[in-house]
Amino acid sequence: MTTPTANHPQEPIRVVIVDDHPVVRSGMHTLLAASPCIEVVGESSNGDEVLTMVENTSPDVVLTDLRLGPGGDGVDVTKAVRGAHPDVAVLIITTFDHDADIVRAVEAGAAGYLLKDALPDEIVAAIRAAAQGETVLSAEQSQRVIDTLRVGGRPPSERELDVLRLVADGRSNDEIAKALFISRATVKTHLGHLFDKLDVDSRTGAVATARRLGLID
Amino acid sequence: MTTPTANHPQEPIRVVIVDDHPVVRSGMHTLLAASPCIEVVGESSNGDEVLTMVENTSPDVVLTDLRLGPGGDGVDVTKAVRGAHPDVAVLIITTFDHDADIVRAVEAGAAGYLLKDALPDEIVAAIRAAAQGETVLSAEQSQRVIDTLRVGGRPPSERELDVLRLVADGRSNDEIAKALFISRATVKTHLGHLFDKLDVDSRTGAVATARRLGLID
DNA sequence: CCGAGCATCAACCTTTCGGCCGATAGGCCC
DNA sequence: GGGCCTATCGGCCGAAAGGTTGATGCTCGG
User: Fold this and answer.
1) Contact flag A116-B24 (C-beta cutoff 8 Å)
2) Which fold has domain B154-212?
3) Which parts of chain A sit beneath pLDDT 70?
4) pTM of the full predicted structure?
5) What superkingdom heads the lineage (chains A, B) (predicted)?
6) Which residues are in reach of strand C, CB within 7 A?
7) Which of A108, B7, B120, B158 is 20 to 30 Å from the Cα of A28, by its Cα?
């Protein structure tokens, strides 16, 4: 439903592409170039130069990978762009639909996100929707966001995640205690709280659930 | 062994691209088209039609994603192509360098593999090397293959992996026993053998190591 | 100021896990 | 046939993990 009440072929949607993979950048560029209603006005391989590029090219939509190399991810790009230019829509591209950062990106003002294996038509449709200020989230994707937000009601604390990451690495409580300079008792307390928040009852279960929600890895 | 004693710019390397992501396919095509020494003679979104395409287009190199959609992965493509046309080199593209299937692909006759975030020059260089019958494995990549082969000396049995997958899912030994219709004791035996093979001493450690080696997930 | 949440620790108890000792049975290879 | 590996099972035991209760000090917001 692109509500084509006012088509402006003479005013294509201006798009900036941000992705650290040359292959993806090139492919996205080629695919979008095939759409007359879209004009790619910039490409960036990292998040640092995006703001400058936005100011130089005045895009309608910034299409950014969620995972970039060093120097910021898609969430940072979203915050920076939306903070300085609230009229520019940000669309997230990601390889996985199980990534907790997607929630952070949406909270930071992203219009939605796309999977990298999306069909060209879907990508174009999403860009058009985003350019019109609409939000783009598929049913399955929305469900995941809701799932994560459910846990978001009781998000594990940073310290608890420290413990969880070491658990996921296969360390014992004793090793974790030494690594974090705390006592075994504290490790157990953190783990107990994690079990409550993640609704599990074992360390392996906590790792599995946290990984599913994208809290670790 | 195409004995490249003579360079033939008038005979570009014929390449077939196999990837289930339209974006990647398009990007790879565009990048390779920029190289005069390479000609893309075919594109496929899945592994099923590759053999027909190879027979129709007679490529020198098949560039295939490791993970394709339903209907076979890069390993299957490698086996099929190398089995029917041993003179056609197969190059694997993958997103992650920690994927046990890479080893299987190399064993199946792949000339090597590339990461999706490789630079265009690296990709072209790898294709040229593969077309000349060379093997393409970076130092880091080779190390991983060796690491995995080290475990390959004592590969976990299929049944042990069944147990391991459930452990990674957070199940207890009791739950695993019920799920696999075996007794707790057997689950413990399998796990003990896994600990030996993976050189760990806990279930979480086994999951961490197996994940690192690409044995699960 | 006081409650809520967090991080830290301790003692106690139950359950699970992991290590070690066995055993039986089937398949495969030399 | 005799190893070798795998899959299956049992019991025993110490160690680790998990559950419960309770405590202290900190920060933050109403």
Assistant:
1) yes
2) Arc Repressor Mutant, subunit A (1.10.10)
3) 1-10, 71, 97-101, 137-154
4) 0.72
5) Bacteria
6) A 154-155, 157-160, 177, 180, 182-186, 188-190, 193, 202; B 172-174, 188-189, 191-192, 195, 201-204
7) A108
